[in-house]
Amino acid sequence: MSDHGRRRGRGGRRAGDSGTSEAILVAARGQFADHGYYGATIRGIAAVAEVDPALIHHFYGTKEALFSAAMRLPVVPSEVLTAALAPEMRPAEGELGEHLVRTALSVWESGQLKETFVGLLRSAVTNEQAAIMLREFIADSILGTLARLTGLSDLGSRAEAEYRVAMVGTQMIGLALARLVFRFPAVASASVDELAATIGPTIQRYLNGDIAIPDHGPPASGAREPTNLSEL
């Protein structure tokens, strides 16, 4: 029997849970890097890993969870947001911005996540493909979830919803870069509560305050419209 045949086994599955899981993660890293978060598919990752696609769902459940595991993120962002905005945790409407900033900072700076998160940010700053991959993941997992949980996705104008949640993204990504990558002294030395009090009102305004919404008109001929709010 060839090495290839011994490796695949019955049904294309590798022997041993740990070996199978690692093969999936290696394949996922390559596919996400090559095709971005949207372009990589469970079926494509399964083909590279030589496993049944159902096995990926068995190990990781969702594409988002697979990406988090492949990038060595100890949390799944949509799950963190869902927990933070659950009815028993959700603050008064006017305090939502501060709550989101405080939640993000507490997650970013946890011992398990900080090093990996900083590495992803640095890669995105210096590598275009890494930037595309991270941008698409943030749009799908974080901004799309935030739009749904805050009711932005229910607005009559999808353009307004997309603009508002994207502005939240600019503020939070800028904060992450300034505090964790560039380490501007005033930002790096500020406490979580100080940053939440300073930046929270801006996040709040982006979510439901008075801002100018640009009118881009209909999409250009041949342009692909996003299939859902998360594809910003």
List keywords for this structure.
232 residues; mainly alpha; Arc Repressor Mutant, subunit A; Tetracycline Repressor, domain 2; 2 domains; 12 helices; disordered N terminus
Oligomer: single chain
Question: In what range is the share of β-strand residues?
Answer: under 5%
CATH top level of the largest domain? Mainly Alpha
CATH architecture of the largest domain: Orthogonal Bundle
H/I helix tally: 12
Extract low-pLDDT stretches: 1-16, 218-228
Number of separate strands: 0
C-alpha end-to-end distance = 49 Å
Summarize model confidence as the mean pLDDT: 86
Rg of Cα set: 20 Å
Main sheet makeup: none
Q: Structural class given helices, strands, pairing?
A: mainly alpha
Global geometry = globular
Remind me, CATH topology of the largest domain? Answer: Tetracycline Repressor, domain 2
Order of helices and strands: HHHHHHHHHHHH
